[in-house]
Design a protein that fits this description.
about 475 residues, alpha+beta, FAD/NAD(P)-binding domain, D-Amino Acid Oxidase, Chain A, domain 2, Arc Repressor Mutant, subunit A, 3 domains, five-stranded antiparallel β-sheet, 12 helices, 22 strands, about 30% helix, about 25% strand, globular
Length: about 475
């Protein structure tokens, strides 16, 4: 079977490209080495929809950031995902750094960012009382927002699947061979023939690129550590608070999340190991010290979890987008603002492929994807009706997030159904609350066993090597 295009990687960029391609007629496939979407760089980031004032004018980062921001409101409605435009402050901590803030403002104007304003320290604190006394000026961007990275990625992927795109998980791209009509993609699960390849392989995108392109890329894994605080701390600030890079370094952000928590991070350390996602005591101390510079009294005693994500930093410090070998399209070096830019990147690369392969529009494309029902978001009347319709919605499995058995079963049997503990967690938030799955994980495992006809020792946290039960005892 020959495909028109194969996308390597089911992160947010690959899923966005898949959905954009599904607007065209053709056979499209997404392959992913992990067991689910959003298992790499996309799952662990700041979840910020950036306004677009930071990137150098004229770069791919600048163009894709601004376009992606513009697309996000309509996209969130189509995909039925949470998205809040809460605005963002960039705070200046020293009088001597004020010219840098002005430069950032002017850069934003050149990039076409709307809703930018410069504030004094007093004006900024009148809007955000918990800004530190050290803040002497600020840039405010009203179009900045927050989204859930997994829900965005899953929404894009499910929309693509609904419109005919195939997904294969546990399928790792190993090498590429040029053919007369395109490419032969060698994977651990067999060979795949395709006219075009879209490289969305994250921190490994350089390795695929360098197999087929004369001009080589080099991607460095840049790790960033975060602390997530309980929802009781979620109102400490109303907007995202960035620190202007200055004599104290780049600083870290403090931001509400779309689900009502408070996020602090990230650090930025280049590492050699592209699989290293372990947090460190040093990194967490760095977060505590730097967060206090911009925001006072951050309630770090309310941390419920910490995590680390990797960013794919390319040496040229810009996104690599386009046809870099005949029929081979790169979406490489997608670091911040990659989450914001993903819908625009998908749109751009899909247009390139459609033009190259003369793919007509898909008249049956349906942009609407409905997310799974959330008991916690229903009115009492809606809850009662849902429980009457399906009594499993009356059985609460996760107490912290009020997630029911019905929601978990629906997530397991969705378009791209959950097969792991983390898959259920990200689709339903079961396990994301204050106790961090201490209560609900055994019950979720039992449901996975029941619905997929597995034994407990076959249940995985997030992939083939992540056993939860080493052996079954009776």
């Amino acid at each position: 079977m020959k495909y028109d295009a194969v996308i390597i990687g089911a992160g947010v960029t690959g899923s966005a490209a898949a959905r954009a391609l599904s607007r065209r007629q053709g056979r499209f496939l997404v392959i992913e080495r992990a067991q689910d979407v959003c298992e790499g760089t996309s799952k662990a980031n700041s979840a910020i929809v950036h306004a677009g004032f930071d990137a150098e004018p004229g770069t791919w980062k600048a163009k894709m950031n601004v376009r992606g921001n513009e697309l996000m409101t309509e996209l969130a409605e189509e995909l039925d995902i949470p998205f809040n435009r809460i605005g963002a402050f960039v705070v200046c901590l020293n009088e001597e750094d004020k010219p840098k803030l002005q430069e950032l403002y002017e850069r934003g104007l050149k990039n076409g960012v709307k809703g930018l304003s410069l504030l004094t320290g007093e004006e900024a604190r009148s809007r955000e009382p918990n800004l530190s006394d050290q803040v002497c000026a600020a840039l405010f961007a009203e179009t900045s927002g927050v989204v859930c990275p997994f829900e965005l990625t899953l929404g894009l992927a499910e929309s693509a699947a609904k419109n005919g795109v195939e997904f294969r998980f546990c399928t790792q791209a190993e090498s590429l061979e040029k053919t007369e009509g395109g490419w032969l993609l060698h994977t651990g699960a067999g060979d795949i023939e395709t006219k075009a390849v879209v490289n969305c392989a994250g921190v490994y995108a350089d390795e695929l690129h360098n197999q087929v392109c004369e001009k080589k890329l080099h991607i460095t894994a840049r790790k960033g550590e975060y602390c997530l605080l309980d929802k009781t701390a979620g109102g400490h600030v109303k907007s995202t608070i960035f620190q202007l890079p200055g004599k104290y370094g780049k600083g870290v952000l403090v931001s509400p999340t779309v689900h009502g928590n408070l996020l602090v991070g990230p650090t930025a350390v280049d590492i050699e190991d592209k699989e290293d996602t372990a947090t460190t005591a040093e990194g967490l101390r760095d977060l505590q010290e730097k967060s206090a510079l911009g925001v006072k009294n951050v309630p770090l005693r309310q941390v419920i979890t910490s995590f680390m994500g990797l960013r794919a930093h390319e040496d040229g410090d810009d996104f690599i987008i386009g046809e870099t070998a005949p029929g081979f399209f790169d979406c490489a070096g997608i670091e911040s603002p990659g989450l914001t830019s993903a819908p625009a990147i998908g749109e751009a690369v899909a247009e390139m492929i459609a033009e190259k392969l003369s793919l007509p529009e898909n008249p049956g494309f349906d942009p609407i994807r409905k997310g799974a029902p959330r008991l916690k978001e229903m009115t009492p009347e809606q809850r009662a009706a849902k429980i009457k319709e399906n009594p499993a919605y009356g059985n609460i499995i996760c107490r912290c997030e009020e997630v029911s058995e019905g929601e978990i079963v629906d997530a397991i049997h969705g378009i791209l159904g959950a097969r792991t503990l983390d898959g259920v967690k990200r689709r339903t938030r079961a396990g994301m609350g204050r106790c961090q799955s201490g209560f609900c994980s055994p019950r979720v495992m039992e449901l996975l066993c029941r619905e997929w006809d597995m034994t407990l020792d076959e249940v995985r946290k997030n992939g083939p090597d992540s056993k939860l039960v080493l052996e079954k005892t009776r």
